[in-house]
Amino acid sequence: MIGDKLQQVRTRIVTACTAAGRDPASVRLLAVSKTFDAAAVRAAHAAGQRAFGENYVQEGVAKIEALADLRAELEWHCIGPLQSNKTRVVAEHFDWVHSIDRLKIAERLAEQRPTGLPPLQVCLQVNVDGGANKSGVAPEDALALAQAVAALPRLRLRGLMAIPEPAPDFESQRALFLRAAAVFEQIRAAGIELDTLSLGMSADLEAAVAAGSTMVRVGTAIFGQR
Ligand SMILES: *Cc1c(COP(=O)(O)O)cnc(C)c1O
User: Fold this and answer.
1) I need a labelling partner for 31 at 20 to 30 A (CA). Which of 54, 60, 84, 219 fits?
2) How many angstroms separate the CA atoms of 168 and 145, rounded?
3) Residue 218 CA, closest ligand 1 atom number
4) Other CB atoms closer than 10 Å to residue 59's CB: what's the count?
5) Mutation test of ligand 1: which of 30, 55, 56, 78 has the most ligand atoms closer than 8 Å to its C-beta?
6) 94 alpha carbon to ligand 1 midpoint, in Å?
């Protein structure tokens, strides 16, 4: 069941890449397992999936621990909003964080990343549609934050993540994703090497791929309704 769903999502990614004239190998699939149990992650692993995303730190760590036997094969991504009091447990357990929106959080993660682990791979979350009560750094502040984060030890800045408001059609979805892509290009033009644009979910991954996404974060289409 999860294996079939995964295959359908992989096919959607390939089709979207073909439509956009892109190499399907340029888009990674992050399976968002929030609210689903460790058995669901195990089933997805058995179907070949390796990268998993979690929103809630406690829940994610419990799953990471329950799947300790697979730890070397799995890549765990923290994609939810991150409070200061949660940074230590994230730095100690996860491989990636997509949701850095201020320097203080990045500084704490750098300080708390155990030296025995590889650098924590990080993305900045950019608020591309401007809602003041949404998380994410404002596009005009993203370059300065990227420069500061790139200079921190024990973190490796990989790119940007965005979660635009749901939009009704492909073109309006793509237009919002292109705002994130433009910030990505601006930061690269300033000489900071980025390779990850984390855009697109179950409902809009095709538009994200058309806008240049290199990592789609898909939950519902793999695991079912939450
Ligand atoms: C839940 C979530 C997803 C997956 O959303 P679906 O619509 O279930 O594919 C992706 N990214 C983030 C940040 C999420 O919180």
Assistant:
1) 84
2) 31
3) 9
4) 16
5) 55
6) 17
Q: Which tokens is 66 given? A: 């329950």
Domains of the chain: total: 1
Q: Whole domain around residue 64: which residue ranges? A: 2-223
CATH number at residue 148: 3.20.20.10
Measured at the CA of 11, the angle between CA 223 and CA 166, to 5 degrees, comes to 60
Ligand 1, residue 226: give the atom nearest the CA: 8
Determine the residue type at 201: M
User: pLDDT tens digits, residue range 24-68?
Assistant: 999 999 999 999 999 999 999 999 999 999 999 999 999 999 999
CA 79 to ligand 1: nearest atom: 13
Which segment of 75-79, 129-133, 163-167, 172-176 scores lowest on mean pLDDT? 129-133
